[in-house]
Amino acid sequence: MRILIVEDDPEICEAMQFALERENHTIDVCHHGDEGLQWLLQGAHDLVIMDRLLPGMDGASIVREARRKEVITPVLMITALGEESDKIEGLDCGADDYLAKPISINEMLARVRALGRRPKSWDNSSVVSWGGMELDTVKRELRLGSECAQLTKRETAMLEFFLKNVGVVFSRDTLFQYIWGAASEVDMSNLDNYIRYVRKRLLEVNSPLELVTIRNTGYCLQEISL
Predict the structure, then answer these.
(1) Burial call 57-84: b when 16+ CB within 10 Å, e when fewer
(2) Which runs of E-coded beta strand occur in 101-195?
(3) CATH number of the domain residue 65 falls in
(4) At the N or C end, where does the chain have fewer CB atoms within 10 A?
(5) What is the pLDDT of residues 89-139, one digit of tens each?
(6) What is the enclosing helix (H) or strand (E) of 5?
(7) pTM of the predicted model, to two decimals?
(8) CATH of the domain at 171
């Protein structure tokens, strides 16, 4: 799974990331509540591990806002607030599970596995569809009618992200972190190359969607204007 950790304590964050990566999860990390909300609203992750007390927007408010906007990504809330009323509030705000600090890494991993077994909005299908166009993320093929384009691993990841969020504008930083990870030493210019590659694949199948540049903001996959 691709998991987002929103936690402002670097030591706790590092311990969770290390344990989750050992179980072959892909991990993204942020330390501020406002950034955590931005990520959660984009639906880029299979699971979010959310600290309750964060700088900026607190975890409960983040989850409440995300649920208000119909984001269904599972959230595991982690907090130092151990009172029963705090746990009830955390669950009532829309979190799917709750774990009090100091956390047991083994218990956290067990809860992550349990949440990962729940049905997802995309039905765990390897095929993402939009209109008559299909992206097979296993075969790495983009198909529309009789047309078919073969994609690389990163082209597939980028196009899958956009197809699940048609009409949503993403910043360059968000795309770069999603494809390569926040700690990657890959040069940002690689993003420009893959934007070109994805545009070429869309043209190869005569896609009704185009990947447009939003000036001073980022990129958006949207319907071609007639």
Answers:
(1) bbbbebbbbbbeeebebbbbbbbebeee
(2) 127-130, 133-136, 141-144, 147-150, 169-171
(3) 3.40.50.2300
(4) C
(5) 667 788 888 888 888 899 999 989 888 876 554 444 678 888 889 999 889
(6) strand 2-6
(7) 0.61
(8) 1.10.10.10
